[in-house]
Structures are given as structure tokens and as C-alpha cells.
Amino acid sequence: MSWANRYQKASFRGAKFNVEASSAEVGRRAVFYDLPTDESGGSASRDMGMLPRRYSITAVLCGDAYDAARDDLIEALEKSGPGDLVHPYYGKMKAVIDGPARITETTAEGGLCRIEFTFRRHRDQGTPALGMDTLSALSQCADIAMDALNGDLVGSFGVDGVQEFVRAANLDVLDNLTDGIKDINRDIDAILSIPGNIASSIDEFSRALTELINTPQKLINTIQAFLASIMNSISRVTDAIGALLPISKKAAELGSDIASVTPALTPMRLKQRSNQTALIRAVRGSAIASVAKISATLTYTSTQQAVTLRDTIAEQINELLESEELDSDEVYADSADAENLVTGGGPQIDLVHDTMRALRAALIRHLSQVAGALPAVTVFTPAETVPAIVLAYQLYGDASRDGDIVDRNEAVIDHPSFVPGGQALEVISNA
Known about the structure:
- The protein is of the alpha+beta class.
- The chain has three domains: 3-121, Elongation Factor Tu (Ef-tu), domain 3 (Beta Barrel), CATH 2.40.30; 134-372, no CATH class; 377-428.
- It contains 13 helices and twelve strands.
- The chain has helices at 3-6, 66-78, 134-156, 164-192, 199-207, 209-212, 216-233, 240-252, 267-295, 303-321, 346-372, 388-396, 402-408; strands at 11-12, 15-16, 18-25, 28-33, 44-50, 54-62, 83-87, 91-97, 102-105, 112-121, 377-380, 425-428.
- Strands 1, 2, 3, 6, 7, 8, 9 and 10 form an eight-stranded antiparallel beta sheet that branches. The chain has a two-stranded antiparallel ribbon with strand order 4-5.
- Helix 4 (164-192) runs antiparallel to helix 5 (199-207) and helix 8 runs parallel beside helix 10.
- The radius of gyration is 28 Å and the shape is flat.
- Mean pLDDT is 84; it is low at 126-131 and 328-345.
């Protein structure tokens, strides 16, 4: 049986069309990064699974009633959700339109139009399994994102052969980012009321930046190790989730006060700009990924806690994805010949995009699952001072739940026999 016998008439949601040309994208996703002192000549990698299959099609509609067939296909393309695609070469599948469809009609070819569009094969997600290990998935996605950021800096950043003003400007950027990391560490030390064991190491690192700027692999490895150590110390804080929220804000703002490099067409100015965005991207992205990873290990006591942290970190990832530091065209926007002047760029940044998007999805999935298993809380203000045991009976009809009221309101309740009246309390609302 030849291929011609397996050829099928193309259609989408029943709207038929002829195919002039078709292409497909298949393969696997991988994170590539280089290891220090590696003499193998190869790159280390981590597999991220199969790429979504994408099919690009140029459809042709012709004849006296081509316009009616065109309108039928347009209607099919504009409907929401997946639909049945019959691909002439790959057969029938569930597919979703990916991006806009482009329609071309000319007077020179009256009675004919071409429509170009791309489909992604649709995967029915079904109902998530109750035993799904979303915690491990989140932790792994954070590690993969940091690997991608690590490899991106090594591939994008360099000071070999640059003029002294470029080197000095990049050192200023590093000083700024290091100061931001120190500030985050000081905040946690203050909460713990004990000196951190890495504060002196960060100071030593800061003094060695003049040399470390020459070895981007060692530079980013050290920074990521500091961030991991700082975030891990949050687990020792009594109100770890309350502490992580302002820490995550500072992490997402690392380098935000650094002025953009004035656009210029010289190779040195472009290199300064490329290096600066690569540094900010690597450090800020690694800090956000570290926050996301530690969020999976904390103990949550209410739906609101998990939802608040989930939405905060997800928005910070969104802002990073939309920032100048992750704009693959930004570095080269000043000159048509800039690609010949600056190394690094698009493909590496695209990989960072993909891994950060995967991290965001894993974060939302895990903390949503955590939130769904927790009680919701509300605010209740007792009219008068009463023992916690009395208040528990009034609220829940169960005096034994007085301990939960006291634990949730340690800052307000000095003694369980005297829950102060007129003070707002956090209590479980779905008792």
C-alpha cells in the first residue's frame, strides 16, 4: 500500500481544504549547559520531555464557491478549544490552532485564496491523579530553570577583549546585584536573630568580583549556591511563609534599579549592554527560581496562605518573562549588523523562557493542590474577652479546637484564658 493510498482529504472541524504545502516540528526539549574544567568537547544536558508536535499548513481554496469554503474554514479556525484535524499526511488528530491564520487573496488569482496556519497536537490532560508528586515536579523544574540560567550566562557573558569601561560597568552591575543578595540575607538574619553562616562568604565573594568576572561559570555557580543557602534558611523561621513574601519581592527586584545602557552602535557598547542584561537575567531569574523551590517545602495552614504565595511568585515569573532582560531581540535592536558584534542571544534566551514557563506551571499546579487540601480562614472579632476554649465552642461547637485559635493568633493572644475582645482574629471558616 503506497503513501498515495494513505493520503486523506484535509479538513478542520469538518471544513475541507486543499493543502499546497505542509511542514511539521518534532523532537525533544533539553537544557544544555557547560561544566567547568570539562575537556570532553560536549555539553551536559537534561531531558525535559517530548516537544509538542506542531503542524504548519498552507491551505488553498479555489473555484466558483471558494469564498464560501473560505468562510467555513475561518469559522472553524475561530472556534475555541481543540477540534478534529484531518491532516493529509499524518491522519486524524485533536488539534488546537497556534497563533493567527494568515489569509491571502489577490485580483491576479481571482477565485482563489491561501490560508496559512499552524496547529499544535492537543493532549487531553484529564483529571490529575490524586497521588501526583507535584512537590518533586516543582523542585525539579526549579533546578532545570537554574541550569538554563547558568548555561545562558556562561554562553552570553564575557569580558575577554573588551575595553576597560565595559569591564568597569559590568563590575558595577555585579556590585549592585551582590548588594541586593546581601540585603536579602540580612533580612533573614534579622528574623532569626542570629548571624547567618554565609554573610562572611558573600562579603568575601564581593571582594573577589574583579577576578570572578573573568570566569562566568564560577561566578554564577557561586551566586546560585548563595541563593539556595539563603532560601533554605527561611525554613527555620517560625512564620516562614510570612517571611518569604517580602523576600520574594526583593528577589524579583534584583537589578531593577540599574539604568539601561544607552543604545549605541559600537561593538563595545553593545557588549556592555549584552553583558548587563545577561547578569541581571541570570541573578534575578535564579533568585525567583530559588524562592519557587523553597515554597514547595514550607508548611501551609490555610488555603489563603498557599494561594497568596502561589499568585505572588507566578506574577513575579510573568514579570521576568516580560522584562527587557528576557527580550531576545532587545540586545540586537540597535543595528542590523549587531549579530556580528555580540555573542549570545536568542536561542539561549528562548531556553530560559521555556524553563521559566515550565517552573510557573509546576508552581501553580503544586500550590493549587496544596491549597485545595487546606481549610479556608476568615477574620472574626469577639465582642468581649473570653477564654479560647469558650470561643472555640462558640465558633465550632467543639471546645477542643481552642489550640488552633491560639496558634493562629500568637501575636494577639498572650494567654489562652484571655482572648481579647475587639481584636481581629484569624479563624477557620469552614468548620
